[in-house]
């Protein structure tokens, strides 16, 4: 009898299990994977380097079937959003997922492959990686400025690497870290449903979270941060990941009621409920603008989109994809005014009633949604020694280090060297990139000397159709 078992077996304690014969040994060649059922549990069976392993078949991000993804060596990539998992350990190796996969025992006997699933993990397709807690004897403090994906992944990585110091995560938001990618896709979602982790998680792993607190300045000589409530907090190492904010219109009428932007779950719900039966106008043909237009189309009485270029996505994905996207929306009834811009927002009784364009065209409107880009939240760094570029993004190296010792930066706020572009400095507001930044920053805080080496990945959804791209977004014709 030969038994080839998954890499997690050594840590399994004896519990009641469900075991099924899932296939013949000859059914799966080396370098192949297949979906199998063990009881009511959906499992991915893989043969890698002559060894069988079994992990949950649902990606921990949004539940995509990994059996439809790509197996490369001992790593499987999710077919939807690119999360990667080690098929031998189930560990997450690439974001945007944040959790690992449970592993199951595999054995081969009499040319039959058997998979055993513990009853306690049936129906639980996720596994949180082991994390340590604070050691009260360690006086070291890491401060994380920002409440997004970069800071969350930094905190988790520190604890996964058994960092025993104090971790303080500070956010000006009133919510724990949440999935911002869903704001323009599920606009009526309750805030609680978007949370990436709940408060008991932070308590369990001794991660302090300060909400509704904003940094006003940083003194890198004294290693202190001053907050809007007067508190001055010291740190030993700090990660700055305060992100970006949506740009508003700079024209008369921009402050009228029902001129809205999309930054928080509350903003998304406000837009969702305000658009019903309205003449809706969207300024901006980026990913956010296009997703919002598609989402609101069925409930608005009319939908108009104003863009500064000839086609949507023209400067990022190119003319061909821009044309396909524009045609798809026009066929659903969306009206486009391209190569134009807003000159004035006209109102009545303090509410928007029309949008006047620079071309002279006037569009009647009950609701105006502004999605014209972002500005970095770096004002509090002015006057500090932290180096920024001409657009006020923080410059970092491949280790997420700024020019100041013990000061790191991550996420949308950074200008960082992209390895696949031969180290060219870029600023990319991608969710998966921010997560990777946070992890790399944590490892280098611990002196691991790990370089950032991840391929940017982004996805958008329009009318159930998904556009995905991997690589560097550059301006194209």
TrEMBL record:
The keyword Metal-binding applies. PANTHER family: APOPTOSIS-INDUCING FACTOR 1, APOPTOSIS-INDUCING FACTOR 3-LIKE. GO terms for molecular function: 2 iron, 2 sulfur cluster binding; metal ion binding; oxidoreductase activity. Transmembrane segments: none annotated. Gene3D superfamilies: FAD/NAD(P)-binding domain (3.50.50.60), Rieske [2Fe-2S] iron-sulphur domain (2.102.10.10). CDD domains: Rieske_AIFL_N. InterPro entries: FAD-oxidoreductase/Apoptosis (IPR050446), FAD/NAD-bd_sf (IPR036188), FAD/NAD-binding_dom (IPR023753), Rieske_2Fe-2S (IPR017941), Rieske_2Fe-2S_sf (IPR036922). This is Apoptosis-inducing factor 3 isoform X3. The keyword Mitochondrion does not apply. Keywords: 2Fe-2S, FAD, Flavoprotein, Iron, Iron-sulfur, Metal-binding, Oxidoreductase.
